[in-house]
Amino acid sequence: LEFVVEFCRHGARNTMVEEYDDIDNYRFKVEDGELTPVGMRQHFLIGTELRRRYVVETPLLSPEYNSTEFFAVSSEYSRTNLSAISQIAGLYPLGTGQNLTDPIQKERSYPPVSGFSFDALSEELDMRSTIESFRSVPVKKLVTKETYFFVPVFSGACPRLTQGAEVFLTIQENQEFYDNFVSPYVEDLAQITGKELSPLLEDHATVYLTFDEMLCQIYGGNTPEGLTMDLLQNLFAINEFQFYYYDYPTDEMKKLGRSAMLLKLEEVLLDYINHRNDYKFVLLSGHDDTVT
Questions:
Q1: Contacts by 162-169, CB closer than 8 A, 24 or more apart
Q2: What is the CA 253 to chain-centroid distance, rounded?
Q3: Which parts of the chain register pLDDT below 70?
Q4: CA-based radius of gyration for the chain
Q5: C-alpha distances in Å from residue 225, one per residue of 196, 214, 218, 228, 236
């Protein structure tokens, strides 16, 4: 094994809107759309598995972080950046950070600022650089226009893709598909959530956001009364419809949306093949918009 590319979706996030504020203990203490503690743990666990695979069993990576071996990049959103950071914490856990090697370094590690006392903590750290020898690893966070291969619709890099919902409503076959495969579950979702929902295609945005809220509620530890696993699997048709049809209603838009990600993967692979860098592992932390 010589090289690994990981393209992942962020972990469990908070709901995008605040419809469930009145449910006790539901909302995480994070902002709407941000990564939750559940999402952090998901990626931390993935990181521990990566360490087992690529450090312990197959020594692709060094036991300690090496900037020439590992590179991570995320979209502009905090939830993808924090997902990468959480995963790296599992890949390079506490105790793998570099420490001081000479007592003189300890003396010179005091910040050049006045009015503070660091003596007690310095003694506690002894020769460790940080608490428990934590190793911070940089994650490059892209700006909006650079995130096109992660979120082609919302990056604004391709004006054509911003017209997806508008174009969708003009295609009769899509209307029939929605009526046959999505609308039947809207009533179920309404009963589970206690919200009034319309089965009409033009009201799909509200239906999707309601499903998204319910799913976040489940990850928050509150399963709505009457929701079974079989019903939840059926309701996922609403989510799949959003990403496979609503945002990318034509073959042209599907190609525009997916090609950017494939080109990015090609770029990363060619960089390795042509020795443009020495990375052995590249982590791309993005969204289900393109990962799926």
A1: 164/246, 164/247, 164/248, 164/249, 164/253, 165/205, 165/246, 165/247, 165/249, 167/249, 167/250, 167/253, 168/245, 168/246, 168/249, 169/201, 169/202
A2: 23
A3: 18-28, 154-155, 291-292
A4: 23
A5: 17, 11, 11, 9, 17
Tell me the β-bridge partners of 198: none
Structure token pair of residue 113: 């600022």
pLDDT of residue 292: 62
Residues 19-62 have pLDDT tens digits of 544 444 455 678 888 999 999 999 999 999 999 999 999 999 99
Q: What is the dihedral of CA 82, 218, 206, 208, to 10 degrees?
A: 70
Rounded to 5 degrees, what are φ and ψ at 146? Answer: -85, -10
Distance CA 170, CA 58 (A): 53
The residues facing 221 across adjacent strands are none
CB 34 within 8 A of CB 220: no
Cα distance between residue 242 and residue 236, in whole Å: 10
* C-alpha distance from residue 45 to each of 52, 91, 244 (Å): 11, 9, 29
Report d(CA 185, CA 168) in Å as an integer: 20
Question: What percent of the residues of the chain are helix, what percent strand, and what percent coil, each to the nearest 5?
Answer: 50, 5, 40
pLDDT at 242: 83
pLDDT for residue 28: 67
Residues 6+ apart with CB under 8 A from 28: 14, 36, 37, 220
Look up tokens 């690994």; give the residue.
Answer: 4
| pTM of the full structure | 0.90
Whether the Cβ atoms of residue 11 and residue 287 lie closer than 8 Å to each other: no
Determine the number of helices (DSSP H) and then strands (DSSP E) in the chain.
11, 4
